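Subject: Interface between my chains keeps coming out wrong

I've been trying for a while to get a sensible model of this assembly. When I model each chain on its own everything looks fine, but I need the whole thing in one frame so I can look at the contacts. Pasting all components below, labels as-is. Any help appreciated, I'm running out of ideas.
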Amino acid sequence: MSSSITESLALEFAPDARTLDTIVSVLAQHGAHAGGAVAEATRREALARYEELPAPGLRPSRGWKHDYAKLRYDGLRWTSDRRTVPTIPFGAAPQGEPDVDRPALQTENAGGLVHVGATLLEAQDAARGDARVTLLSLADAQREHPEIVAAVHGAVVDWRTDKFAALATAFQNCGAFVYVPDGVQLEAPIQLLFANTEAEDEAVFPHVVVVVGKGARATVLERHAGEGEHFICGLVEVHVGEGAELDYAVVQQAGESSRVMFSRGARVAQDAQMRWHLADLGGTLVRTVLDAHLGERGARAEASALFFNTGMQHVDLTSGADHAVGPTESDTVVRSAATGRGQGRYVGNIVIRPRAHGSDASLRDDALLLSKRAHIDSIPALEIAANDVKAFHGATVGSLDEDALFYAGSRGIARNQALRMITLGFFEPVIARFPGEALRDEIRTALDHKIDEATEIDG
Amino acid sequence: MSKAGNPSRGLIARDLRVAVENKEILKGIDLTVEPGRVHALMGPNGSGKSTLAFTLAGHPGYQVLGGSASLDGEDLLELAPDKRAKAGLFLSFQYPAAIPGVSVANFLRTARMAVRPEDLNPAKFRKLVFDKLDTLDMDPAFLGRYVNDGFSGGEKKRLEMLQMAILAPKYAVLDETDSGLDVDALQSVGRSVNALRESEEGKDIGFLVITHYPRILRYVPADVVHVMIDGRIVKSGGPELAEEIERDGYDGVRDEAAAARV
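Reply #2:
Try treating it as a single job with all components included. I did that and got this:
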């Protein structure tokens, strides 16, 4: 179709004002067809903040080689498009065989949305899905449900204090909106797939807004998959209504040369429960922020995260639980491993503010180093300004347990196989908290493949 | 049975000398455990009993200075720990390692498949496991727990016995399996060893029961008793030797040995 922006425009991305001028005019011209969902003034302000803010990250340690100030953006295309396709080209995986290379919208879902790069795919065989759920591109949702969107979009993740959230806001080009009305209880997950192909490297800036109504219950599964050397930098903003429950799982398997930066935040209402689940498996440089704001009594947040850095992979994860009032609860469990020259950093923030009496916060992170050149930093930060609170923190960084390896060996299990078993077992406490056995098995299989790659490389 | 007639049959140590961190602990061990027989190895703390067990199993921290160890003619010292298990050796650990995140069921299946890849049929395996659980009087909920993770002393020893029953080795070394067990747990260990010995696949297992106290031998009667002191087997005899030690302690044997060395 000639209305496709992609055909009329292939914009070279650069994080500067001149590029933003072009983008603003493209979006103004293509209106409803494009995926733009951020006002021009906000984009300009966000770009200014991006330029002002220092590169993120606390004191880089001896082993941390990456410098966010030196990121390069050449060779990336920016677009904002939608395309109608006969059918979503990501078929269901064969039964019982999780397909990690081409993750599918599972046959059982409460609705799904697929982006390839920043292009929204709209299937003619309109996705089945649960009629009670509203699932739209974020740009469409702004037109159809402006008030619901505005109450959350730009209101949960503060791009004014986060350099890459500011970048994602300035250059936003696609996004999704999920609305689960009051009282609706979903069994199957809503799936958001962000795929990339090798055809052309893209700069993708998705914004995801999820609103779960009072007493509702839902699972959202955000997946990243594909090939190529993309730059994916997005925001996820969540509101969990009073007494509602949301499981939000991220399985990030972006191409091994892609850079992936996401700031995700949840605002958790009274007696509501937010559960983040994160598996950062793909990409070469990955930066994830996972926040929960507990601003009403009885709010509870869980965060379960894992990453496994192989080859030259860097993963940088920051979690935050902000106890603004009490009693509120947070429970964070992180497991990370690195092999080859993989590097990682985990920063765990817990803030218990003066009005948060009676709150309970727990933070547990364990890191496993599988090679001499692998490195993981663990940086907990607890700030407690209220009395009568329970706060637990525990962290370990260790190498493989030789006693366990010998023990498994004495049972006939060869060293490589024992190493695989012990490593997978190490991740199990986090995997076990992901929703659904199919998803848990998929993550186990993906980790298993990563162990294969690592042992091939390391010999 | 004429099996004992073959000179290379058995779990055999010959003049085995072993150091740990450059200190010689085993100073020449000669021992032959024949198929289907129970040998007890007794001795005071620090005499080198566990060093022998770990050396036979191939722990990398134990340095063999000389001598040999073989299993039915196969040179154990040349083999990695997993290959020794595949050759038919089983070590019941005094302090089994925990493997968090790995379920007992998964571990048992992986081990059985590694040691005997030929006969794993899921239904049969399941039946085997449940039969053995029953014999050991163990709750099937055990299977879902992580290997030795948060287990009590007694639970750890029962899991060792369960693994031994499922792997059905040719030779089993039980390293202080009785230590830290109350009478009930000890009886359960005894029952499981005896049930295995009475079974078709277990009747030819040769046992080396390493212990400080003779009481386990009430439940698992030994055919031969050896006493180890200061890295040497100083005396061997029949079950009456265990009774002697129970009555007089190790001092009598120690004095005898010292007199003989002069």
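Reply #3:
Confirming on my end. The longest strand of chain B covers residues 23-33.
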